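Renewal narrative, Specific Aim 1. Our central claim is that a sequence can be written position by position from structural information alone. The example that follows is taken directly from our test logs and has not been curated for this report. It begins with the structure tokens describing the chain, in the order in which they were read.
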């Protein structure tokens, strides 16, 4: 058992962020910043941070639905990585409901494909949700423990939301990290499910690497990241071809983009605000894709498909894309999963992809749905 004390001490409302290098636990709100203009929000937060203080928080998918929410916790503790040995029991739900019904998601993807083929857009990301009701309070700490135990994603997180709920998950995708003058982004797009059978698993990965449709889906994303970061960087590198990356449940195409900043006053949160929403979770062109998401999805995304992370007084920090996550209310939990749609997408395959993406949370809850 390595460095699990902070994980054990987590209580709902705290901010938890765990990676392979460190664990951050922030408790108690010393100062809270809430705003719908994330660039102004990032500037207000920078102005407040001094010495060793840290700001932590979440950005929503769309500030028309929920504000950016960043706090300077009264207590911040950090340690090495948290690797629990034991799984914790979560318990079974009394009701499960898909939002929308799977057949309606297939229809929405079909409509999106038609719009894309008619030439209006290059890519849009459509999501669906799974609502689970319980006869007891949802044990957020147990789910977080199990996500860390499963090493379910490179960034395991939980954050208190302004509505009193908790966003928790384990995402593979880095929106932006900044250390001194160096920035890194690790965009992910293009996916296939893992398989328990090693031969099928390898075949799935090879099919993904060779898939023209997934290459296009990924290229749209990397282009957008590079275009957004270029004005901020004097050096910016991105490999021509994406690489295969995996979580316990999914294979993805990923590209590590690295750069050197022109101006070291540009903070991690400011850069994350510039990048968000990327085509990994919204689409291209951004505004048209955001409108289509609003038209085709029958729910508000809230803090799903936003960003979660931290920043220090020097402007360094890490912001991950808030996917493979759920929003926990007292006795209910809403899981989210989405997928990028391009003209060559297949609606049924997109439904299956979202089902596979739900597995990150479902496994952590010990559920076989
Ligand atoms: C939008 C999600 O995943 C994104 C990240 C990786 C791969 C994706 C894809 O292949 O569609 C999505 O762009 C999600 O998990 O809800």
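The sequence written for that structure reads:
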């Amino acid at each position: 058992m390595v460095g699990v004390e902070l994980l054990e001490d987590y209580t709902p409302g705290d901010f938890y962020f765990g990676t392979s290098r460190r664990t951050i636990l922030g408790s108690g709100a010393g100062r809270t910043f809430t705003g719908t203009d994330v660039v102004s929000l990032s500037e207000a937060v920078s102005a407040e941070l001094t010495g060793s203080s840290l700001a932590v928080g979440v950005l929503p998918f769309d500030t028309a639905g929920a504000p950016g929410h960043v706090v300077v916790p009264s207590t911040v503790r950090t340690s090495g990585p948290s690797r629990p040995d034991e799984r914790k029991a979560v318990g079974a739900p009394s009701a499960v409901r898909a939002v929308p019904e799977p057949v309606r998601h297939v229809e929405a993807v079909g409509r999106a494909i038609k719009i894309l083929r008619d030439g209006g857009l290059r890519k849009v990301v459509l999501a669906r949700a799974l609502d689970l009701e319980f006869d007891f309070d949802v044990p957020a700490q147990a789910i977080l423990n199990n996500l860390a135990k499963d090493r379910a994603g490179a960034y395991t997180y939980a954050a208190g939301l302004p509505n009193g709920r908790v966003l928790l998950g384990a995402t593979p995708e880095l929106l932006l990290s900044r250390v001194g003058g160096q920035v890194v982004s690790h965009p992910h797009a293009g996916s296939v499910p893992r398989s328990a059978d090693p031969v099928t698993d390898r075949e799935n990965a090879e099919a993904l690497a060779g898939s023209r449709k997934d290459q296009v889906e990924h290229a749209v994303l990397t282009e957008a990241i590079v275009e957004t970061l270029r004005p901020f960087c004097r050096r910016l590198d991105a490999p021509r071809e994406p690489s295969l990356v995996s979580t316990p449940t999914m294979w993805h195409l990923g590209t590590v983009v690295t750069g050197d900043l022109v101006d070291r006053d540009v903070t991690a949160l400011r850069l994350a605000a510039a990048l968000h929403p990327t085509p990994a979770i919204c689409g291209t062109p951004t505004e048209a894709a955001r409108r289509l998401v609003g038209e085709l999805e029958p729910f508000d995304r809230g803090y799903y498909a936003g960003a979660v992370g931290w920043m220090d007084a020097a402007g360094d920090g890490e912001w991950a894309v808030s996917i493979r996550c759920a929003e926990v209310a007292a006795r209910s939990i809403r899981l989210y999963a989405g997928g990028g749609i391009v003209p060559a997408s297949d609606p049924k395959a997109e439904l299956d992809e979202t089902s596979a993406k739900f597995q990150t949370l479902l496994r952590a809850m010990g559920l076989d749905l």
